Amino acid sequence: MAKEQKKPKVSVIITTFNREKFILEAIKSVISQTFSDWEMIIIDDASTDKTERIVKDFIGGNSKIKYTKNPTNMGAPRSKNKGLELSSGTYIAPLDSDDVWLDQNKLQKQVEFLNVNKDYCMLGGGIMRIDAESKPLQKVLYPVYDSLIRKIILQFNPFPQSTLLYRKDVALSCGGYSENYKICDDYDLWLKMGLQAKFTNIPQVLAGYRVHGGNITKTKRLTTTKEILEIVLNYKNKYPRSYMGIIKAYLRLIFAYLKS
Q: Which among 231, 218, 222, 229 is positioned nearest to 256, based on CA atoms?
């Protein structure tokens, strides 16, 4: 009888679309982690550039890295849910294909925390904004304490996706990423998960968030602000200080219309 293959502790999920310039840096930052009990699942959302060839040439026969390409462009939420379906880890570490992990101990720190603190579903950390050449631009840290995070989470999203590690079972029990949203599906999922367990952030820079001409929040600002408003209104009775979040969401939408 064949020996049952041990499941990895962490599933790193990278969804990508036309990121030939950046995706190898993202992959290499996972490989360089001191914590090695992971699998990497790359969901290519029908890229039309050289992403597929670059990734396949790099990973070769590495069994820890699984690459799959959607036949047609499905959008980010469906691709992320596909990644969840294919994953086998206890914890999920999402990584945007144009971002990079800067702390080689990121996974080690986060796995140790979630292993011990069963009442927490998710933890993130700080970012360094970087440019297209990976030069540092600005350091940003986020609130640590669950009680404070809950007070501000409807005013802004304090969890950059590429810094996170979260419990797969909690995400699935919430229905995964909502496919009703094109851009803010992650924000909606964090809010759903927060109704079941606690949040926290490590007060250290864990990831590089890339600022470049193709950032989705720049090209689709109006859609983003509309989705944020809808999400904030959906959760207004479930998190404190919702009035502040509602005011800010309306102001963002007004400014987005003025700029469009």
A: 222
- Give residue 93's domain range: 10-213
Give CA–CA dist 12/91, Å, rounded: 9
For Cα atoms 230, 235, 240, give the angle at the middle one, nearest 5 degrees. Answer: 130
Asked if 182 and 222 touch (Cβ cutoff 8 Å), the reply is no
For residues 106 and 208, is the Cβ–Cβ distance under 8 A? Answer: no
- Convert 93-128 to b/e letters by CB count within 10 Å (16 or more is b): bbbbbbbbbbbeebbebbbeebeeeeebbbbbbbbb
Q: Looking at residue 257, what is its pLDDT?
A: 87
Distance between CA atoms of residues 162 and 178, nearest Å? 18
User: Tens digits of per-residue pLDDT, 166-191?
Assistant: 999 999 999 999 999 999 999 999 99
Torsion angle defined by CA atoms of residues 99, 100, 105 and 108, in that order, rounded to the nearest 10 degrees: 50
- What's 79's domain CATH number? 3.90.550.10
Q: What's the pLDDT score for residue 256? A: 87
Whether 249 maps to a domain, the answer reads no
> Residue 192 carries which side chain, given as an amino acid letter?
K
Strand segments, DSSP code E, in 86-197 are: 91-94, 100-101, 120-130, 136-140, 165-167
Band the pLDDT of 214: cuts 50, 70, 90.
Answer: low
Question: Is the separation of the CB atoms in 182 and 75 below 8 Å?
Answer: yes
